[in-house]
Design brief:
The chain has about 220 residues and is α+β, with helices and mostly antiparallel strands. It folds into two domains: about 5-70; about 80-215, Gcn5-related N-acetyltransferase (GNAT) (Aminopeptidase), CATH 3.40.630.30. It is about 45% helix and about 20% strand.
Length: about 220
């Protein structure tokens, strides 16, 4: 079967749109949808179809609008990010962690569900819905973070960066001056550095790297 140039572009556009529908990440879904709409727009131009051009131009603009909000983050851009305390013995917390434990272990393989009621537990929200969890322990004015987890649909957004910058008042209000955590996987270490944590010199052979953030 011999395909013309416009047909190949049309098939490529279709593939991008179908791929977008398989994405669990909101950002990746929007990016693939944007690529598909642009490609479909090119296809529509090549075959001279105004409906295809108009429709996909509108879809591209919508995707760009939402991606701008995703990358900017914060309520001033139409996304409500939040963090609040939750009881360490809350049934919701244990159900949330247990349900997502396999995914958590992909990034923080050594994490276990806290058994006592003395853990510091924070619920991350986006537009009023649960989006992640931070679990740690207080050591003086340092919060030792054992879990920093964001649900996959929001993992490519700026929730973590927001938490450790604009959202860090929640830590200061509780008297913390330092956040400390261990980088137990390469993916997790890259994430920590991207949100402002720095590796310390307090390393021991065979142990995970220790990262700190002064707030």
């Amino acid at each position: 079967m011999n395909l013309s140039g416009p047909e190949l572009i049309g098939y490529l556009a279709s593939a991008l749109v179908v791929t977008a529908l398989t994405m669990t990440s909101v950002v990746r879904l929007r990016m693939f949808s944007l690529a598909g709409s642009i490609t479909f727009g090119i296809y529509g131009t090549l075959i001279g179809s105004p409906p295809i051009i108009i429709t996909n131009t509108a879809i591209a603009i919508i995707n760009i609008w939402f991606l701008r909000k995703e990358f900017a983050g914060g309520s001033e851009h139409g996304i409500d990010l939040g963090v609040s305390h939750i009881r360490a013995d809350s049934p919701f917390l244990h159900d949330f962690v247990a349900f997502h434990l396999d995914d958590i272990h992909r990034f923080q393989p050594n994490f276990t569900i806290p058994q006592g009621g003395d853990a510091v537990t924070l619920l991350l929200t986006r537009d009023g819905l649960p989006a992640g969890m931070v679990i740690g322990r207080r050591i003086g004015t340092t919060l030792k973070i054992d879990l920093d987890y964001v649900l996959s649909p929001y993992r490519d957004s700026r929730l973590g960066r927001w938490l450790y910058s604009e959202g860090s008042d929640v830590f200061r209000a509780d008297g913390y001056t330092t956040l400390s955590t261990s980088g137990s996987s390469e993916t997790h270490r890259k994430y920590l550095e991207s949100v402002g944590f720095k590796p310390t010199s307090e390393q021991s052979a065979g142990a995970p790297d220790i990262f700190q953030l002064q707030i």
